[in-house]
Amino acid sequence: MKCPFCGNTEDKVIDSRMSAEGQNTRRRRECLKCGRRFTTYEYVEETPLMVIKRDGNRQRFDRERVKAGIIKACEKRPVSMDQIDTAVDEVERKVQRETDREIKSTRIGDLVMEKLYDLDEVAYVRFASVYRRFKDVSHFMKELEKFLG
Ligand SMILES: [Zn+2]
Question: Which of 6, 97, 109, 127 is 20 to 30 A off residue 143, Cα-Cα?
Fold first, then answer.
């Protein structure tokens, strides 16, 4: 770390302690050239996971939004809040495994659909019809046929 007094870049850490909440580490350093002491702080870099929307805009990944979408699809269906919470957890974990920076909203939609597919077919089709914005009825029917066949 560059000494603020003489500009020398060599120092030794004489004390290092973590803040009470563990959010930063404070280090006391001593310049090896001029012997003066100074303090540095170390923080974890927080890079929010961003979702790329259809229009190209970005917004922070928000698990509550995912949950709201699943709840809406499961309305009046025999799906418990426990099952919904588990599905949201799994989607979030998959998202985090795939990226730590950006993910397309359509990819999140696909992950949610995979979960709903296992959970409840009506919820799945409801979600798919909104999410995929089926352009025509035949596409929608094809999805439905997976369950009717
Ligand atoms: Zn110095």
Answer: 97
Q: How close is the Cα of 28 to the center of ligand 1, in Å?
A: 13
Helix (H, G, I), strand (E, B) or coil at 114: helix
CA–centroid distance, 26 to ligand 1, in Å, is: 19
Q: What is the pLDDT of residues 1-18, one digit of tens each?
A: 999 999 999 999 999 998
Half-sphere exposure of residue 126: CA atoms within 13 angstroms, side-chain side: 15
pTM: 0.62
Domain span holding position 34: 11-43
Residue 5 resides in a domain: no
Per the structure, the count of domains in the chain is 2
Same domain, 114 and 94: yes
Q: How far, in Å, is the centroid of ligand 1 from the Cα of 39?
A: 12
